[in-house]
Amino acid sequence: MSSNSRSYDPEESFMTDVANFFDTAPPLKDRSVISKKLKEFINHNSHTAGNGASMRKIVCVTSGGTTVPLEQRCVRYIDNFSSGHRGAASTEYFLKAGYAVIFLRRRGTCQPYCRSLPDDPLLECFESTNDSNIRVQQSQAEAVKKAISSHHAALEAGVLLKLEFTTIFEYLQMLQMTAVALRDLGPRAMFYLAAAVSDFYVPWETMAEHKIQSAAGPLDMTLAQVPKMLSVLRKDWAPLAFSISFKLETDSQILLDKASSALSKYNMHAVVANELATRKEEVTVVTLHGKTCIRREPGTDIENAIIQLLAERHAAHIQDTLQNQAVS
Ligand code: PAZ
User: Fold this and answer.
1) Is the dihedral of CA 17, 20, 22, 25 positive or negative?
2) Which of 130, 143, 231, 240 has the fewest CB atoms in 10 Å of its CB?
3) What are the pLDDT digits (tens) for 279-321?
4) Cα–Cα distances in Å, from 151 out to 104, 141, 185, 254?
């Protein structure tokens, strides 16, 4: 070995992968618009409601699956399953609990306050009248009124900001921007990362520009690993924020072990473990203090109980952090 050869440093190599991911990702189209919206939203919610520990808390809820394009002029892509129901329902309960919410969702997936509406609200909630006007169908009137008024109330009060992504490149850039923008809130910020994020991707510079041709025979493609940004979020982007990730598995035998290992590996404050088939009925919240199983109560959403538990833990995290800061 020559005297100036350096030994392999896994941390350095990981940070290089992270830097490469962002350096080579196609730039966000609306970066300056998103940045302005984030700044205004955080500013508005930092100067309203209380002071010290009672100041308004802001949570970033991520929701829906990210896509992995296979071509730069994308015709085909790999997708991650998520209807966005968890994120949308959780957003409603966070707002009810007094949080301001940055709702970062996959375009076209479920939105807060729309869960009780039919799949195609425009076509199924409205009807035309004899005098060529449009009116809400009687059977949908209550649901439509409630959805519109709750949504407008949240926007009017400036406590709901909705941002949209499709690809893994957009998602991670927007998450980074949001986390860095929330950094100064310290422990009052929360990340509730329910989005289903791709583990593998095609780096932009190695991606075919045009539609891949089937005449060339079977497709043989190697996907690179997406760097695990959770640890970067905790270490660099927003180190004092209360951070919760989700772990989805289809094999119940490995679910809790995988959740515990995510907790320690990425230094999360909690990991919500759920199985695909039962995710609306049962989850387990894994923390350093133990595991709490939550089951859906009849007549409500499971997210109601998840948010109650996490809001309590978040309040304790704020107290602890502020006390530690006062002592040091
Ligand atoms: O969006 P949805 O309500 O259909 O499902 C929610 C979920 C299963 C995507 C979410 O609870 C979750 O586990 N997200 C993280 C998935 C992952 O391990 O990447």
Assistant:
1) negative
2) 130
3) 999 999 999 999 999 999 999 999 999 999 999 999 999 999 9
4) 16, 15, 25, 39
CATH number of 10-327: 3.40.50.10300
In angstroms, rounded to a whole number, what is the distance separating the alpha carbons of residues 52 and 136? Answer: 45
Residue 284: phi, psi to the nearest 5? -125, 125
Nearest CA owner, ligand 1 atom 14: 194
Ligand 1 pocket mutation, candidates 85, 274, 275, criterion most atoms within 8 A of CB: 274
Contact between residue 55 and residue 314 where contact means Cβ atoms under 8 Å apart: no
CA distance 296 to 298: 6
Helix/strand/coil for 116:
coil
User: What are the residue boundaries of the structural domains of the chain, listed by start?
Assistant: 10-327
Q: Flag whether the pTM goes above 0.80.
A: yes
Burial of residue 327, with CB atoms counted within 10 A of its CB: 0-12 exposed, 13-18 middle, 19 or more buried:
exposed
User: b/e per residue, 91-103, with b = 16+ CB within 10 A?
Assistant: bbbbbebebbbbb
- The DSSP element (H or E) to which 52 belongs, if any, is none
Dihedral of alpha carbons 120, 122, 123, 124, sign: positive
